[in-house]
Write a structure and sequence with these properties.
The chain has about 180 residues and is mainly alpha-helical. It has nine helices and no strands.
């Protein structure tokens, strides 16, 4: 029962993370299922300190392993909100999202989508999942300084793009 609750509570976050690697929804669902099967089979011998990091890292490795095994190109979409591709999406959530989605939020998502894939991944893990730099470095298998560098570059780029957006809004406001 606790294992099922864990799987249910983490599914959406894992799905959202996996869309950074591929847009193939069935492939993502199969990969998530596979990591939970592996965990269940190895439950007696596993020692997991941070569950969410372990799950993200397992999913990342599972996806990359499958890409190598199938020898087909990785289909990396632009960064998207989890709600845009999630299996949990309904008409109601779509209407609610469109009602509450402001122009600045769309511009932020658009700006994030313009970042290189690794910067998008770091931004997602840091600001959408709330992971610390050390946790991100462990998950992405890079050193902590590289995480800091990727975050710095991403935030610098986002800041410059958003300042252009602010000037555009002021100009638009003055014209009306």
């Amino acid at each position: 029962m606790a294992f099922c609750q864990l799987a249910e509570s983490q599914y959406r976050a894992l799905f959202g993370y996996a869309v950074n690697f591929t847009t193939d929804r069935e492939f993502i669902k199969d990969s998530i299922q596979e990591i939970f099967i592996n965990i269940w089979e190895k439950r007696q011998s596993l020692s997991i300190q941070y569950v969410s990091i372990y799950l993200f890292k397992s999913l990342r490795n599972q996806l990359l392993q499958e890409f190598r095994r199938s020898k087909h190109a990785v289909s990396v979409p632009m960064f998207q909100e989890v709600d845009q591709v999630s299996d949990w999406e309904t008409v109601e959530t779509e209407i609610e999202k469109s009602e509450t989605d402001s122009e600045s939020q769309r511009k932020i998502r658009q700006a994030i989508a313009g970042l290189p894939r690794r910067q998008q991944e770091v931004v997602f893990l840091k600001f959408y999942k709330g992971l610390e730099n050390e946790e991100i470095s462990e998950l992405m298998e890079i050193n902590r300084q590289s995480v800091a560098n990727l975050l710095y570059k991403a935030l610098t780029s986002l800041k410059s793009q958003m300042s252009i957006f602010k000037y555009w809004l002021i100009a638009l406001f003055l014209l009306h």
